[in-house]
Amino acid sequence: MPRRTYTAVEVDAAVARLEDPQRMLHATEIVTHAAPSLARVLDGALADGGWYGSAHEELLLRASAESDPTERLAAIRALVDEQTRVGMLVGVAVGFELAGELAGTEQTMTKES
Fold it and tell me: Residue 109 — φ and ψ, nearest 5°?
């Protein structure tokens, strides 16, 4: 099954529609239900991508060993910010793939009906 590609304009419009809180109610319910499984997928994707390998451990050690409390706090904040960005990007990729899987399931179920 060929995958549909999206333009930046289409993605921007879709993101703007997601700003409506009512649109997110069902998604929130589904994600809450699937959270344990999604967490395993996200953890696996982060591990497979090397995001939490030896380089990450080194950054953790360096940040925690910083003797100056101000510098330690700045290093920890930078690390948390980076982890948040990476987690969000990988999470979006997982969500994007999940949407494709669901669309494929929907098409299969329609053909079987």
Answer: -65, -35
